[in-house]
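thought: fold this chain, then report.
action: predict
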Amino acid sequence: ILVTGYSKQPGILRTFATISNKDYTTVIHSINVMALSLSFCFYSGLTLRETKRLGLAALLHDVGKAEIPSEILKAPRKLSVEEFEIMKSHPAIGDRLIRDINRLGEDVAQGAREHHEKLDGSGYPKGLRKISFNGQLIGIVDCYEALTNEERPYRRARDPMDTLKLIKDDVELGKFNRRLFENFCYCLI
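observation:
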């Protein structure tokens, strides 16, 4: 995706590299979210163009963290309320970086802007109830990957099956799309 599709747009890779210098764990997380999203695309039979666009959106979903202070990104503890409010700005920052600076398109920007939104309006940064396909899928994948692969000083990584059960609870509460979640589960098999 990156080499064949975007080698003539070095701004994409530069934007991604910016976060690498600041917080390498976000880079690993973003690559994992992209890989899981691509698996979903292949399982679901999306076109090559749709797969490339969704893969790029997944890779760049957290690029807004490039402008979050390092002491918040790398805090060895749970964030304070004030710090979490700053962290919650990363989707809007990512939207700006993708849309205004790199001009990658609305579909890619939506993945960054909406990946923490929830269908019941409880997400952030805007509390949307109408969320794009990219935002919904990346939100599910982001949640799964973060809980299963990222050790934190205040919590251990979770077992994949336990994580799926936890996300299923959020599906039951109306936070995530049931069909997307079920197809995501099937693509993991």
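thought: worth noting. The chain has a mean pLDDT of 90.
final: tokens above.
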